[in-house]
Design brief:
The longest helix has about 45 residues. Helix 5 runs antiparallel to helix 6, helix 5 runs parallel beside helix 7 and helix 6 runs antiparallel to helix 7. The radius of gyration is 27 Å and the shape is elongated. By secondary structure, the chain is of the alpha+beta class. The two termini are about 40 Å apart. The chain has 2 domains: about 160 residues, no CATH class; about 110 residues. The protein has a 9-stranded mixed sheet with strand order 5-6-4-7-3-2-8-1-9.
């Protein structure tokens, strides 16, 4: 379940680290941070005999465009037989820089090999739209003139420029504008069921731990009551037996999570999410133990 939600967190991280305001489909290049998206299914496979292709969103660099840090997953300039893939595809298929993927050219029907030149930050789609069919990642191709000349396509532009400055000459049309803030909203909306489920599971585990441990020590603690121990002393012993160990376990998870974050093996949204769950687990442990102490010794 955590693995299923990882791509959402990675998508959020990528969008947060990007700097463009919106993306838009156009019929010509703006000369920077734009890609060809073809109206054809360009597929890549790990080997030439594979019956299934990678589930990837495929786009192509333009020959004359420059690419900046405006888009977090922008790739270095690629030649016609080089590609860049996102980290989620690389991890899922054990791929690294220098490995080869294969693709049947749509124009001449020949199968060509493409060398992986760069591993990019994780992303599932070029543009994360509402109710989007999520891919396993992105593949960016180097410019290939035969595709441009023979396959219909649109140009996806990522920019922070006012839209009227892109179309001011009246010859360039723009459609399907999508703001980065809206993309973030759509990702968070898709992540929400996982968030609720993780929250409920974390709370249930915390409460269940306190109840099970309390049931095991109830007899001993009732004996303390019958022997005349003060409630303050009994509560202190209870905390030492249940609350403190449980909270220390959760704090241990917080330390591990933070450590992984410092090592950059987890993206910031995942760190924040896990810390959020950990905090509520501690609240659940303390709250449950408080109500148990209020009722148990009386009974």
């Amino acid at each position: 379940m955590l693995l299923s939600s990882y791509d959402y967190f990675a998508e959020i991280s990528t969008l947060i680290n990007s700097k463009y305001e919106y993306s838009v489909e156009m019929d010509s290049s703006q000369g920077y941070d734009d890609y060809y998206q073809y109206n054809a299914a360009i597929r890549f496979a790990i080997n030439t005999y594979s019956e299934s292709a990678l589930k990837a969103d495929v786009i192509m660099q333009l020959d004359s465009s420059e690419y900046s840090n405006l888009v977090y997953w922008n790739a270095e300039p690629l030649n016609a037989h080089e590609i860049a893939i996102t980290q989620n595809i690389a991890k899922a298929n054990n791929l690294s820089v220098g490995d080869i993927l294969y693709s049947k050219h749509i124009v001449d029907s020949n199968v060509y090999d493409y060398t992986i030149k760069q591993i990019l930050p994780s992303a599932t789609n070029v543009r994360y739209e509402k109710d989007v069919v999520r891919n396993d990642g992105l593949i960016i191709m180097g410019y290939d003139s035969t595709y441009e000349e023979n396959i219909s396509h649109s140009v996806i532009v990522f920019t922070s420029e006012p839209i009227n400055s892109l179309t001011q000459d009246g010859k360039v049309s723009a459609e399907n504008m999508l703001y980065r803030d809206d993309e973030l909203s759509f990702v968070i909306e898709d992540l929400l069921p996982y968030t609720i489920l993780f929250f409920l599971i974390g709370i249930a585990i915390s409460i269940g731990f306190v109840l099970i441990r309390t049931n095991k020590i109830t007899t001993n603690f009732r004996r303390y009551v019958s022997l005349g121990y003060q409630p303050k002393i009994i509560n202190s012993l209870y905390d030492q037996s249940i609350v403190i160990p449980a909270c220390l376990v959760v704090l241990g998870f917080i330390v591990v999570n933070t450590g992984l974050g410092l090592l950059k093996t987890l993206c910031l949204p995942i760190i924040i999410f896990v810390l959020f769950i950990n905090v509520f687990e501690i609240i659940a442990i303390v709250s449950t133990s408080y109500f148990i102490r209020k009722t148990l010794w009386r009974s």
